[in-house]
Amino acid sequence: MRIDIISVVPELIASPFAYSIVKRAIDKGLASVHFHNLHDYANNRYRQVDDYAFGGGAGMVMMIEPIDKCITELKSQRQYDEIIFLTPDGETFDQKMANTLSLRENLILLCGHFKGIDQRVRDHLITREISVGDYVLSGGELGAAIIADAVIRLIPGVLSDETSALTDSFQDGLLAPPVYTRPAEYNGWKVPEILTSGNTPKIEAWREAMAYERTRERRPDLLQ
Where do the tRNA methyltransferase TRMD/TRM10-type domain residues begin and end (predicted)? Predict the structure, then answer.
């Protein structure tokens, strides 16, 4: 998988891709992430990528020309499955969407910034709009990092135990059950006996029941 991230401040999100699972995926050649500074596609010596909104109003708007030039250049080199714009009013990102995107080969993530982005970009250049939650960030960079991380970890071979991703929260519509590790007793706090019994079928049944119970208590909306 190749992910191209377009941003006015690409330095903001370089570090999440330099560590842990995502870095291992990149080192294995299973994924690659490339950052593109939108200022490099500006059409004046001030490297301007924003301007005042037609009709007035507070805040600056990202200009269409630098974005079009960047996306056009990328598309001239390869075919992209999705060109995604990170925006608060996009469809809410979830595990099902992460699963779908993990099957794609080439993605572009366009990070919004300032007050907004020229609507013509959304009308003519974007194939999908995604939000990471019902709140507003200073830009789409952190959202892009979230999406890239959630998607890359699902690529076969990225996790050392590929079944691990299948038991994550939301994969089956439920939250993950409680987990424990050694020691079996600490300060009088004991691990449930079923988990140390060695009875795999009963352990799996317990985990399923606990996952359902946790979901019912914390996210009953998922059960609908």
Answer: 1-224
Query: How many degrees, rounded to 5, is the angle at CA 192 between CA 187 and CA 198?
Result: 125
Helix axes 141-152, 20-27, angle to 10 degrees: 60
* pTM for this predicted structure: 0.88
pLDDT tens-digit series, residues 138-167: 999 999 999 999 999 999 999 976 566 666
User: Which residues are annotated as part of the binding site?
Assistant: 112, 132-137
> Token digits for 87?
């925006």
Count CB atoms within 10 A of the CB of residue 198: 8
Extract the annotated binding site for S-adenosyl-L-methionine: 112, 132-137
